[in-house]
């Protein structure tokens, strides 16, 4: 299996919403760090589990960030799941050929003419 492209992977989590949330968190924390002269923190947690007996995984992605404030800090966390296919090209949001495993030729409802 080829290595998964991390940029594409992050862009696909939660149909692109996670990417926007990460961008917002990075900017907010960086701005608060500069404004208040204190450390901030952005943590991304990814957990994977197989979906049934398929070639799919459920990716639980969590974004947890802390912005420093003048007298303390402000914290937010967001967590959702995104199903992905495990393919020869790495983790993909959609399978290359999603209907390939649905039917076998011998199970076809129409019998070929001879």
Silhouette: rod-shaped
Question: Uncertain regions: pLDDT < 50 for 5+ in a row?
Answer: none
Beta-strand level of the residues, as a percent range?
A: 35-45%
- How many helices in DSSP terms? 2
Looking at this protein, list some descriptive labels.
114 residues; alpha+beta; 4-stranded antiparallel beta sheet; 2 helices; 4 strands; rod-shaped; Prophage PssSM-02
How would you characterize the overall build of this protein?
The protein has 114 residues and is of the alpha+beta class. Helices cover 24% and strands 38% of the residues. It has helices at 6-12, 17-36; strands at 41-50, 56-69, 72-87, 90-92. It has a four-stranded antiparallel sheet, with helices on one face. The longest helix is centred in the first third of the chain and has 20 residues, at 17-36. It starts with 5 loop residues before the first helix and ends in a 22-residue tail after the last strand.
